[in-house]
Amino acid sequence: MKYNFNIIIKRTNRLKTISLQVKNQAVVLSLPKFVSDGEIDNIIERKINWINNKLALEKTNSFDIKRKYENGDKFLYFGTEYSLKIKDANRDNVYLYKNNIIVEVNNNFNATYIRNILKTWYISESKKYLIKTTSYYEILIGVAANKLLFGKYKSKWGSCNSKRIISYDWRIIMAPLEVIHYLIIHELCHIKYLNHSNNFWDTVEKYMANYKLQKQWLKTNSSKLIL
User: Fold this and answer.
1) Do 29 and 48 contact (CB within 8 A), yes or no?
2) Interacting residues of 9 by C-beta distance below 8 A, sequence separation 6+
3) Which of 179, 173, 180 has its CA nearest to residue 152?
4) Domains of the chain (ranges, CATH numbers)
5) Torsion of CA 215, 219, 220, 221, to 10 degrees
6) Backbone angles phi, psi at 104, to 5 degrees
7) Residue 26 contacts residue 5 (beta carbons within 8 Å)
8) Distance CA 68, CA 70 (A)
9) Are 135 and 189 in contact (CB under 8 A)?
10) Cβ atoms within 10 Å of 147's Cβ, excluding its own
11) Distances (CA, A) of 187 to 44, 159, 168
């Protein structure tokens, strides 16, 4: 059966249940290998209204931001929008002043160069804040991560594995403070529960009563957190 959206089928022997997601204007269906094509059509048909609503919502919340890396470009930092202001200086530097994010460069206004300076600054600021705040919540929750990793990921803002290694997407520093704290609490609670069971969510709620608001913000506004 033909649909007006892309369907990505992921079959594996490891799965026992079926997972249906909408990502990047496509339906991602993860399922066991034994599920037939006819059953897949039935699943899509049963969920067609839900799928169309999700696709419409995702399209509404998507932002096609064109970066030029020149004066006036807008960038988020801790949920606040700052205007880029480029200045000529003796050395490269980045700092915030009033409503501006100031990038000082030594006679080099190339867009790629400006972007790289900004990226280096964002990563540095993100690491400092996430390391410090993770340490705070480790003490509060009574857990300890073995290692923190920082990167840029396509489909997750954070993760925690069975070795207690937590990974963060450094771009989370662009989100509001409470959203960042939610992400940290979320990943640290996975040290206690490596799943999304009721016990896991109850523990998250213990340390952030309004976590659902932060979770929804991240789901709705992820496309804004770009450099």
Assistant:
1) no
2) 29, 31, 40
3) 173
4) 6-61 (no CATH), 74-224 (3.30.2010.10)
5) 90
6) -100, 130
7) yes
8) 5
9) no
10) 10
11) 32, 6, 9
- Residue 200 CB-density burial (10 A; 0-12 exposed, 13-18 middle, 19+ buried): middle
Residue written as tokens 């096609």? 64
Residue at 215: amino acid letter: K
94, β-bridge pairs? 103
Query: Alpha helix (H) ranges present in 16-170?
Result: 37-46, 48-61, 111-141
pLDDT, tens digit (0-9, with 9 covering 90-100), for 72-82: 999 999 999 99
How many whole angstroms separate alpha carbon 62 and alpha carbon 16? 32
User: What six digits make up the tokens of 51?
Assistant: 């799928």
pTM: 0.75
Among the residues of the chain, which ranges form H helices?
Answer: 37-46, 48-61, 111-141, 177-192, 198-207, 211-221
For 97-122, b/e burial (b = at least 16 CB within 10 A) is: eeeebbbbbeeeeeeeebeebbeebb
Please write the tens of the pLDDT for every residue from 114-137: 999 999 999 999 999 999 999 999
Provide the pLDDT confidence category of residue 31 given band limits of 50, 70 and 90.
Answer: confident
Q: Kindly state the tokens that stand for 204.
A: 């998250």
Q: What is the pLDDT of residues 204-223, one digit of tens each?
A: 999 999 999 999 999 888 88
Residue 104 token pair: 């000082």
- Locus of tokens 């399922």: 31
DSSP annotation of 183: H
Exposure of 121 in the CB half-sphere (CA atoms within 13 A):
20
